[in-house]
Amino acid sequence: MIPHPTCLSLDSAEETTRLGEALAAALFPGLLVCLRGNLGAGKSTLAQGIGRGLGLRRMASPSFVLLREYPTSPPLVHGDLYRLQEEEIPSLHLDEYLSQGYVVLLEWAERFQATVFPDRWDLCLETPFLDDPDQPFDRRILRAWGHSAASLSSLERGIHRFTSQEQERKGQR
Ligand SMILES: Nc1ncnc2c1ncn2[C@@H]1O[C@H](COP(=O)(O)OP(=O)(O)OP(=O)(O)O)[C@@H](O)[C@H]1O
Ligand SMILES: [Mg+2]
């Protein structure tokens, strides 16, 4: 399957949080969600939105414990690989979490060999306009891919939910 990325403009941190909430409704057991992007791109903001959509009031930073598990539906495990060396990653047993039906949500997923998991969303946040005075400073671009039929259709469902909710909000203003 050759996936085409979906591109979205996210004009504020709140909008990114709302995207996460909408995507949470489309998660399914055994899905790997890879959050990619530079320092400050908005990965944790998007992760918090996903957590909120699953009913969590707040997700603590996973930096020091490496992984945090949440008894949501589907169950969630959240990790940030920023400080990890590639050779340390197998000890996290992410494949076991996935086969047990957890959604695995990873920040700095570049450090993980994710390509063996086709039930995967790649969510890449970019900051192409930071130096452009004509663009809002908070603007981020998201490029999103699903890599299997199930991950692609669920991702499309989540993004559709988000774009319809945003249109409704704009219509109400
Ligand atoms: N459109 C946006 N989407 C997400 N965050 C944004 C946006 N605009 C501004 N921000 C702000 O950018 C800052 C950094 O976001 P965040 O911590 O989510 O990034 P990160 O990718 O997790 O960074 P790091 O790699 O350093 O952990 C936050 O203060 C957030 O509120
Ligand atoms: Mg972060």
Automatic annotation (TrEMBL):
Origin superkingdom: Bacteria
This protein's UniProt keywords: ATP-binding, Cytoplasm, Magnesium, Metal-binding, Nucleotide-binding, tRNA processing
Database matches in Pfam families: TsaE (PF02367)
Keyword Magnesium belongs to the record: yes
Subcellular location: Cytoplasm
Entry's Gene Ontology cellular component terms: cytoplasm
Single GO term (MF): ATP binding
InterPro entries cross-referenced by the UniProt entry: P-loop_NTPase (IPR027417), T6A_TsaE (IPR003442)
SUPFAM superfamilies: P-loop containing nucleoside triphosphate hydrolases
GO biological process entries: tRNA threonylcarbamoyladenosine modification
Gene3D superfamilies registered for this protein in UniProt: P-loop containing nucleotide triphosphate hydrolases (3.40.50.300)
Family: Belongs to the TsaE family.
PANTHER family (UniProt xref): TRNA THREONYLCARBAMOYLADENOSINE BIOSYNTHESIS PROTEIN TSAE
Protein name (database record): tRNA threonylcarbamoyladenosine biosynthesis protein TsaE
Lineage of source species: Bacteria, Thermotogati, Synergistota, Synergistia, Synergistales
